[in-house]
Each structure stands twice: as C-alpha cells, then as structure tokens.
Amino acid sequence: MSFDYAAQKAATEALWAEMSAQHDLPHQGQLDLHFRAGDGADATEFMGWLEDAGYDVEHYEADPEDEDDPEEAIEVQTGVMPLTPETIHAEERRCTEAALRFGFTPDGWGFIGA
Q: Per CATH, the architecture of 5-113 is what?
C-alpha cells in the first residue's frame, strides 16, 4: 500500500498553524496518535511493536452497536517530548509506517501539554 507522507506532513503543519493562530501551544507534552483497523488488521502484532518501541497503547475493539465509533482502533501515546510540527510528524510517520504493515491507517493526533 502506498501512503502519501508528504500530504500527512502538510496536514500536520497546517493543523499546527491553525491551532497556533488560536491558542498559545505548549512547548512540550505527550502526543496521542490514533489508528483505525483495516481489513485483516493485526492489533496484537501492532500493539507489540508499539510497546517494544516504548509507546503506551490503548486498544479499542470494534463495537458495531456504537453508532459514534464502531471500528476497531488503537491509540498511541508518547512520553513527554518537544511539540513542534517536525517532532509531531516524525512520531506520526514512524508509527504510520508500522501501522500500515499491520493493517491500520492513521486517523489523526492530539496532545496533552506538560
């Protein structure tokens, strides 16, 4: 599967610029990355890779009865790190490369200031 990392980076930079224009953003914090399962996704292997790489991981099983969020998902949290578009995209790309190998796709990010 081909993935457009340049578009991902551009979207991250645009979102950061938009948020920066509206708020004073923290210089450091924990980054949350969100991934959705695709067909044949292997959550166990993806979570294992993430944990081995030092990330905290939350797994949300598919729930067809949840109208707001019926899909299987994984949320990844970094340790405290500098928050800039460059550092965010570096983590985003690293995890996206792994996610794609295990059948997941990126679905956004957020952060908690430290």
A: 2-Layer Sandwich (3.30)
